[in-house]
Specification:
alpha/beta; nine-stranded mixed sheet; three-stranded antiparallel sheet; 11 helices; about 20% strand; globular
Length: about 400
Amino acid sequence: MNHVLIASQSSSRQDITQRLTGQFYTPPDICNEVARQITVDGFQPRIVADPFCGDGRFILAWLEYVHANKSIALRSLEQILLWDCDSNALCIAEQSIAGALQRLGLERCRIDARVCDTFRMFQEAANSIDLVLTNPPWELLKADSRDSISVESLGHYKTTLKYYSNQLKHLLPGAASHTQKSMGGASVNLARAGAIACAMLLSERSSIGVVLPASIFADQASAPFRREFFSRIGVRKMQYFPAELRAFDGVDQPFLTVTGHGCKETQQFSLETFAVPSSARVISADLSGIRPVPLLINNSQAEILDTLGKVHSPLRMLELDMRFGLWLGRELDETRIAESFGDQGVPFLKGRQVDRFSIRQHTPPLVSPEKREIPASTHEERLVWRDVARPNQKR
């Protein structure tokens, strides 16, 4: 994680380390709910781990819940693994959990606390953990102008970031975005990487409780992740929390809690949504990963979609059937698009200029062929629509 060190020394942002390492701690209520779901009758883990432990609140919540409910889950507990790149947070975690173990009469349980990069560590403990409770970082490995890296360090920062991204892509292929779906050339999402690394830690008879951004179960770019995650984790339950809840300090983003078993394929799982109106239903997993998890529809809407799906072909079939010859996709990557504008070239229409069945009158900027390769599709007739990235961006 050399890019984090470079950024911490050269950025004018006070929170740069927090942003790049995804340090947004899980609300206590969410920790308690995951602890409740994961504590099933008869399950007695020997080794428990939080590979992205922060201040240790997840495992602490589980210990307290199990003790308060007089579960037998602590009878076989021998070791707790705590990993984090933040030495101060790890120290707090180790002290808090050591105190809880002593208070609960579990002094025999060892704590293995390590300051480390989990993405370089997880292979050492592969297939050996009985219970994983964690919230991995959610950051996309992408250089961002908002990070305010000094001009002198920017080149080195980007090179180091790309090197680290390529390493994770090699170790955890499911962390990379689907081909042609990456954002501005950035393809590795740390939430996807963290979830798959945790899945690879799990032993034959194990359980997992993890908090993840909802987007990686619902967007097109994360299809490889869903394929690998559902093949490694037998998901039992997902709970969806909308962005409007603002459960995390400083993060306006929908998220999920996921609980399940290790070393199993997902067949079906229950999905509980806390949007308005709330709903609960059973979902059949798509092991190909292509079909997103329908997080934002209620039961009656799901029935309508199921009926339509049995009668009509999906939109992507128009792309596969060359009788129609349609290509579905983004025509031009808009990353730093303003740098490609010139006095002459091809008019560029922004999404905000598209109304229902009409185009707003304006003078569009021109994309210069000398600065940006013009796609061949500009010579074809096109169908244009507005999309909405997140529910809280509805207009």
